[in-house]
Amino acid sequence: MHSVHALIAVKDLARAKSRLAGAFTPADRERLVLAMLHDSLAAARQVEPIASLTVVTPDSTVAQSAHEFGADVYPEPPADSTDDAQRLNDALSHAAANLRERLGAVDLLALQADLPALRPSELTAAIEAAHEYSRSYIVDHHGTGTSALLLHDPTTALEPKFGAASALRHAETGAHPLAGDWPGLRLDVDTVEDLRLAAKLGLGVATRELLTELGWPDPDSRESSS
Ligand SMILES: Nc1nc2c(ncn2[C@@H]2O[C@H](COP(=O)(O)OP(=O)(O)OP(=O)(O)O)[C@@H](O)[C@H]2O)c(=O)[nH]1
Ligand SMILES: C=C(OP(=O)(O)O)C(=O)O
């Protein structure tokens, strides 16, 4: 069984999921970010090859929740850049380098934190498929983003290229796109439409319970989506 160490990045809660600002109050949006993180971690924890789970974040509330959800925390060093994607990629690179300094040239997985419909079986299959390639990635459901980047090469760095058009940027830097019928693994939630799709697919417990408590989706949005 190949083992892999997983990294999950989450930015400051106050700035997170800005594309959901029209649908949720700031406090509810923060709860939703934590619920989706919880479900992503809960699914990842059931994946046998995942030897450790580390949440990379500058936010103390996220860090506390990550500990409660059974993950390790890598406190993000002060940012060198004001560019969001650059900050995210720098944070992941630092955390990846730190893991390899401590543990040797272990296999790595950078996984999105907003995968509330993720199934452990999908991630297990993806990790198995990734063993064929030195660096590989999973294209998101839009076909343009990346829901996970996997590194199985002791001599190469993770070189994360998350952000706009990251699927293309991962391809351009030599990573291999993994093929597989993994709808939950590909469904990163950034918009209300994504959330509806994830609800149709089947949400994890934390996100489902929160949305039920918030009365979401409201009757109007249900009508407009049918
Ligand atoms: N640790 C860390 N995580 C980040 C940073 N920027 C983004 N992320 C995380 O990376 C993932 C993708 O980020 P984005 O798409 O930029 O932000 P988002 O919060 O998902 O959504 P929007 O605000 O709507 O763009 C999310 O899990 C973010 O929390 C950062 O500077 N540091
Ligand atoms: C950062 C990314 O995701 P999103 O902006 O969709 O959360 C990405 O796909 O690289």
Radius of gyration: 17 Å
What's the order of the H and E elements? EHEHEHEHEEHEHHHH
Q: Considering the protein shown, what is the CATH homologous superfamily?
A: Spore Coat Polysaccharide Biosynthesis Protein SpsA, Chain A
Number of strands: 7
Strand content: 15-25%
Bound molecules: guanosine-5'-triphosphate, phosphoenolpyruvate
State the helicity in percent bands: 40-55%
Binding site for phosphoenolpyruvate: 146, 163, 166
Enzyme class: transferase
GO molecular function, one term: GTP binding
InterPro entries: CofC (IPR002835), Nucleotide-diphossugar_trans (IPR029044)
Structure report:
Belongs to the CofC family. GO terms for molecular function: GTP binding; phospholactate guanylyltransferase activity. The protein is of the alpha/beta class. The protein has one domain: Spore Coat Polysaccharide Biosynthesis Protein SpsA, Chain A, CATH 3.90.550.10. The protein has helices at residues 26-45, 60-68, 84-103, 120-130, 166-172, 183-186, 192-201, 205-213, 219-225, and strands at 4-9, 50-57, 72-75, 107-111, 135-139, 146-151, 176-177. Strand 5 and strand 6 form a beta hairpin. The protein is globular. Bound molecules: guanosine-5'-triphosphate and phosphoenolpyruvate (PEP). Phosphoenolpyruvate is lined by residues 140, 145-146, 162-163, 166, 188, 190.
